[in-house]
Amino acid sequence: MYSEITKNYYRKTVGHVFTKSVQVEGTTKKFIETGCLCKQKSNGRPLTAENDVEGVRASFLHSPKISKGTAANELSMSKRTLWRVLIKR
């Protein structure tokens, strides 16, 4: 529908060449809906899963003197993620 016109327009104004008609249609739809081709703001860092939080709690309730490194290895997560869970939750 808009593919050839849109393709030529973007090639001239943006300097980007589309290789698939799906890209052209998606970009056209985004422009019509939002009025902008800007990248939308992301939601930030994904949250730690609840089952991971529960695992950390259970691990430290079972043996409170366990080191962060040992607990992280047992739970298969990084020490940084484990520390974030301990501080924030």
Task: Tell me the layout of helices and strands.
Blueprint: H1 3-13, H2 21-34, H3 50-62, H4 68-75, H5 79-88
Helix pairs in contact: 4-5
Describe this structure in words.
With 89 residues, the chain is mainly alpha-helical. It has a domain at 50-88. Helix content is 63%, strand content 0%. The longest helix has 14 residues, at 21-34. It is rod-shaped. The relative contact order is 0.09. The mean pLDDT is 79.
Poorly predicted residue ranges:
none
Order of helices and strands: HHHHH
Q: What assembly state would you assign to the polypeptide chains in this entry?
A: single chain
| Large-scale geometry | rod-shaped
Give the tally of β-strands. 0
Radius of gyration: 24 Å
Tally of individual helices: 5
Secondary-structure content class: mainly alpha
N-C termini distance: 52 Å
Level of helix content? 55-70%
What does the average pLDDT come to? Answer: 79
Proportion of strand residues: under 5%
The major beta sheet can be summarized as: none
Short key terms for the protein model shown above:
single chain, rod-shaped, 89 residues, 5 helices
Summarize the structure.
The chain is an all-alpha fold and 89 residues long. The chain is built from five helices and no strands.
